[in-house]
Design goal:
about 180 residues; alpha/beta; Rossmann fold; 5 strands; about 50% helix; about 10% strand; binds shikimate-3-phosphate; shikimate kinase activity; aromatic amino acid biosynthesis; nucleotide-binding; amino-acid biosynthesis; kinase
């Protein structure tokens, strides 16, 4: 496989909490490729955390910096990239993603909700309730509702990836509980 992939850049795509970082790190080690995280590149370029960019500026500012990071990454080779969950949404980004190979990690939203709540929601501004919607309630239920909506909006975009890995199917083949698999 490494021979076929040499000189390319692998982009892991998928929802928040699907395990992109863990899997990208594992693949990068297996292939002796470099590991990169597009959110970290954005934070470095802007000089603020993702949560801060959302709260002090706007999602638009974050998306522009994210596109720029993906553009730069698309010109690299022998790199495995954990992208942010929304990297697939902008059409422009597909120009960059398609320079490499895209791998979609598909995880059911119920398991995503468990993982993002366990990891802490403060790092995931899209899941933090705000405005009239901010009703008190169970964090898991709220995360599940938001993730389900985001998944519905993005599902078609994720399906544009070159490869799709059904994590639920693999977990069941391995006889493992999906929620025991490593988090994102
Ligand atoms: C986002 C996912 C986050 C981060 C930002 C927006 C999204 O990355 O890029 O908060 O739109 O789904 P992770 O997928 O690593 O959580």
């Amino acid at each position: 496989v490494a021979g076929d992939l040499s000189g390319t850049c692998l982009f892991l795509v998928g929802m928040m909490g699907c395990g992109k970082s863990t899997v990208a790190k594992d693949i990068s080690e297996a292939l002796s490729y470099e590991f990169q995280d597009s959110d970290k590149l954005v934070e470095k370029a802007v000089g603020a955390t993702v949560a801060k960019i959302f709260s002090d500026s706007s999602e638009e500012k974050f998306r522009a910096a994210e596109s720029e990071a993906l553009n730069q990454l698309s010109e690299t080779s022998n790199v495995v990239v954990a992208t942010g969950g929304g990297a697939v949404v902008r059409d422009e980004n597909w120009r960059y993603l398609k320079q490499g190979i895209t791998i979609y990690l598909d995880v059911p939203v119920e398991a995503l909700a468990q993982r993002v709540v366990a990891a802490g929601l403060e790092k995931r501004p899209l899941l933090v309730a705000s405005g009239p919607d901010n009703s008190p309630g169970n964090a898991h239920e709220q995360a599940l509702a938001r993730l389900s909506k985001v998944y519905e909006e993005r599902n078609k975009a994720y399906e544009r990836a070159d490869l799709k890995i059904s994590v639920a199917k693999i977990a069941s083949e391995l006889g493992r509980d999906l929620n025991e698999l490593p988090p994102s």
